[in-house]
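Q: what does this look like with adenosine-5'-diphosphate bound?
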Amino acid sequence: MKRQMGMGDQCLYRVVWVGAFSLVVLGIAIFAILFWGTAKFVLAHGLNQSLLGLIYEPTQGRFGLLPFMAGSLVVSGIALAVAIPLALSLAVTVVDMTPRRTETVRQILSGLVAIPSVVFGWWGLSVVVPAIRWISGHSGFSLLAAGLVLAVMILPTLSLLSINALTRVRVQWVEGSLALGATPDQTMGRLILAVSRFPLLEASIIALGRALGETMAVQMVIGGRVLLPHGLVSPGATLTTQILTDMSLLPPGVSGHHVLDFMALLLLAAMYGMVVLLERTRRMSP
Amino acid sequence: MRGIGWHRAALAGSLLVGIMFLGIIADLVWQSLGVLSWHFLWSPPSEMGRGGIGPEVRNTLVMVGAASLISLPLGLAGAVFRVEYSGAPLFVKVFDRVRFTFLSLPTIVVGLLVYQWVIVGLGWPLSIRSGIVALVVMNWPFVVNVGIEALEGVPDTCREGSLALGATRSQTLRRIVFPTALPALVAGLGAATARLLGESAALIFTAGMNVAVHWSWGMPGETLAVHLWYLRTESLAPYANAEAAGTGVVLLAVVALVLYLTQKIAHWLKPRDYSRKSA
Amino acid sequence: MNTKPAPDLVVQNLSVHYGEQVALKDVTLQIEGGQILALIGPSGCGKSTFLRVLNRLVDRSAEAHCTGEVFLGDTRVLDPKTDVVALRRAVGMVFQQPSAFPFSVFDNVAYGPRLQGVRSASRLRSLVESSLKQAALWDEVRGKLRRPAASLSGGQQQRLCIARALAVSPEVLLLDEPTAALDPLSTAKIEELILALRGDYTFVLVTHNLQQAARVSDVTAFFRQGRLIEIAPTRDMFTAPKCEETEEFLTGRYE
Ligand SMILES: Nc1ncnc2c1ncn2[C@@H]1O[C@H](COP(=O)(O)OP(=O)(O)O)[C@@H](O)[C@H]1O
Ligand SMILES: [Mg+2]
């Protein structure tokens, strides 16, 4: 027997239905608008020149995006390369603590997650850039500086997720390993990290998403050079920072404004790819 | 003891992390000491130095407050539908993909889109209300996420128990599910608010980098985070670095306060154990 | 197979505290190498703690504090200078909850040898095969070595854990209620297995199943509230217990 929905039920159902569907509609609309803008751009300026081009001179009609894609990848790569070992260190140290202490560390980290990115940008300007300037003799504004700032910025998120991954490993497994004469290091490497490799991969993907999408902290220290960077201490730009820079240089109406949609669409596509990848890794987790 | 070399290295790494974050915050506070004062907190900014951040504090609180209030029902509706009503696996799959992608969308893209739609399309000025639109767009999927996690934390046995007693879906939701999910919801909303407080990329081209002396929804609305960025990249004012640090300290204080209060409220809302008193 | 003789177990005035709480108090007992000692007693009387002292897994609880002397053969178990890793290799342990690693059957058994640096594939294969045969599991899993251990039944997983312990050639085996979560048929198989291995290893078996203790053990020790109430050859204990408390427990009048 199917029960009749009451008035309140129907009303509520309609309201939440509208809420859920409008999120989906807005999400798809974002994609459609960026896609539309990209299409206009590609029709006007061609695809190969921009997607694979090395020269970015909007006033000359040249829109090579490769330097920015390279910048985004290199900067996020540095960030992950620096942050993953540190986050793992923290997680390895914390899993052996009592549950109460672990909880305290979690609380502190979730506070640090909320630090605004401009604060990290400020820190980059007052510490990282001068340090690189001092060591390398260059200006200090560089991909390396941006990568290091991002590493610190994603560290709380990455640590928190890594701690969650490692603490989910069952205590019987850990004791089983120790009882077989495994040293603490062996237990960590061959059991705990091996068991949690997919959750850890998941954490890294999430952190990569944050790094790729960050704008302000990167913009403050990267130097904003639109040429293909020739080294880690050379200045550069990323997709996100270039959107910020060009919003004032290429306002709507100006020829080439839609290159911004193109860059945004590339970012959106990267995020979508990561979401699909995350679905896969979640299925692999024990 | 044998075989703890990696553990030692990890401990060293952890100490490094701790020292680094302490260092960042200590540096920020230290450099801000020269400017922090009541005067700084209340006065308008000045390119001549010795300005303050009064309007920025006000703009930040107003914009984040309004955006949170608007995105709360929007987000909760989506979460309730997703957890309590949606049955179709295909819908769930599409919905989840859209919300996760939307959630990880760089906020500069949100800024770009709102700039195109609202500033250019609708002809709104660079203003507080345009900034609120940007914040709502970026907060919406986050609140949906918070809502979904909170609602999924409510065990199904609670729902079934209530439905078995003859309660309708909406009664169950109001009387059982919502109160149980409330602590997690409040804590999650605290995190959402903190994220909005620190936002800058989506606001530079929607709310702008200026402040108006006379407040109105249609006037430019620079926030604390945007001001910090502006001071440290474009401003020529003397003491810009110290003022940037001061702005950062105030921003961190507001974020910390929001997180602290929501945690407290969440803790207070948790169902307590009365069994001892009844004895 | 095990070549070293199974060591005697000597415990003198062993006490264990978890912070303020006393888990074991002044326990003194002794069994010969190759014998099977069964520990019985109500929950919380310290049986698991006793096992965890023997392989120093008790070290994992920061607030645990042990006093007294425990010898396994010549090894002074509680001596801070004792190499815990070597001790644990010599003392295998099987837990109540199935603790098979979330790896394949093969990797579960090969885990211990690999820790000790065994790399050669053929050597590992023969070790895995002999351990699984010893644990009477080989016939059931021979074609499924690459399957996840979780695909085995509960009883098979428990025997897999025994095989895993045997693969590092221990001298002592500690079994903490190994059949508590199993059906009668699987329980019978494990008991058979223990009896087949008797003599090659010194066994300490914790069990809630009194018949089990009666069936497989040589010596039975009855614990209550952290104290050793009575220890005697199993047959004597079950036919003519000396203490009244033991009799009450054995006849089910206890608690
Ligand atoms: N890690 C621990 N921390 C504190 N107390 C413990 C710990 N492990 C066991 N205990 C306490 O020690 C006593 C003995 O426990 P245990 O050895 O597990 O008993 P049994 O295995 O006989 O049920 C119990 O009271 C238990 O609460
Ligand atoms: Mg026990």
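The pocket of magnesium ion (ligand 2) is lined by residues C 47-48, 176 (CB under 6 Å). Residues 54-85 of chain B form the longest helix (32 residues).
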